[in-house]
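hiii, so i know i said id send this last week but things got crazy w the move. better late than never?? heres the sequnce for the chain we talked about at the cafe, plus the structure i predicted for it. fair warning i was half asleep when i ran it
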Amino acid sequence: MAKSIKQLFNRRSFLGLAGLSTSSFVMPTFLNGNKGDISLRVAQEPTPDYQTLREGEAYFDTNKIVISAYKSMRFYKKKELSYHYDQIRVYRMECPDFKFGTDYSEYFRTLDHKKATLIFQGKMEPSLDNKFRYEDNDIKLGTVYCYWIGSALGVPEGPLPVKARDPEIWWPYETVQKRVSELHKNYPALVQVNQIGVTTNKRPLVSLKVGQGKRCIALVGAVHAGEAGPEIILYVLENLLKNHPDLLKKVSVVAIPSANPDMRERQVKGIPWYLRRNANLVDINRNFPANWGDVETTYGYSTDDPQSNTYRGAFAESENETVAIIQFMKSHKPEVIFSYHCLASIAGQTLAASKDGLQSKSFVDRSNAVANTLWQGMANRDAAQEKVYYLCTAGSMPTWSYKELNTPAFDIEAPFEAVDLAQCKTDQTDRALLKKYQEMHLRGITAVLKSIAF
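okay and structure toks below
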């Protein structure tokens, strides 16, 4: 009898430890107190109708992926059931056909751990006798993975999706803060750093003023978590300080490198799908007090729907991030505001401005002049070849800037080059592509600064 049950257990291990019940088998050796062989205990104990692990998580951390889960509460601190955790299993599956911007969490829901690779099986000591943690160091940057973590019995916890994003392309919050501090340390006469507020999750919202001139332009990054921001803005500021210190004695750049760092950090740490809203699930770029009551329906979403990816919030200026941006802009009164958008750390040359701005010819003329200067600096293009798209909606920063400050403001969107857009919109940005657009924006912002300095 014992031999046949052990064979059954071995077969169940091969099938994924989830498909067969052993509730009809009773082992005299187990009843007599023999708890040394897990195969015998499996024969006695029925496979649970629920998972033995809960609250699983997988995230990317610099060069590894961390997978963790807690014991289910039914098993926590119950010594007579501790044998369920004598062995822990970790499964991994690569997901090469996952498409950023097209696929979301639903992609992973039907994946089955039985088709994944078992990358670990063995003893694992839980912290506080409750939490199991495994580090996978055998990973490839740019790859989307799905993990499961399970005990010796029952269905593994998962799927736990994660993408190993290159930290040179998606800068972690710690990197952003460090580079901001280094700018202040290296150029104390030209760089001021301030905290202008806190995020929904109470992270400091940091701003910079680079330069000594009263006239300034403003740069804002990562209003939408999965889009561009600190990787371009801080590169521009670093190189302006290095190569154009005389220009910065005449004019200034004020900047918020990352306006939505809570969710940006989640994107950096491996959420595979596109994130847009803040930690309150509000679209910051629909939360500004400018025609806020008007319901917009872009992208197939409605801004008054809390489930929507463009949800405007419970009321205008409801979000900490929005409040901080408004106060920052009012205090500095920039000549123009550039807000970095598009996808995967890349913003191109396409400029979107408030559709309300079309009501004023003088505003349109000023906006077009600034756009022309930026395009010429970036890529020797001008208004004869390109145009500003006046389409930004109610509640957006460009609409608020027009109505409140009468200041041109642009959401910087897609690259002109189709091949570059195709690369970044699927989160395939590599270091060469990022460097190309860092340099392009450096040239464009330098041109705009020179136009207001003289």
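btw Residues 334 and 386 are 24 Å apart (CA to CA). thought thatd interest u
miss u guys!!
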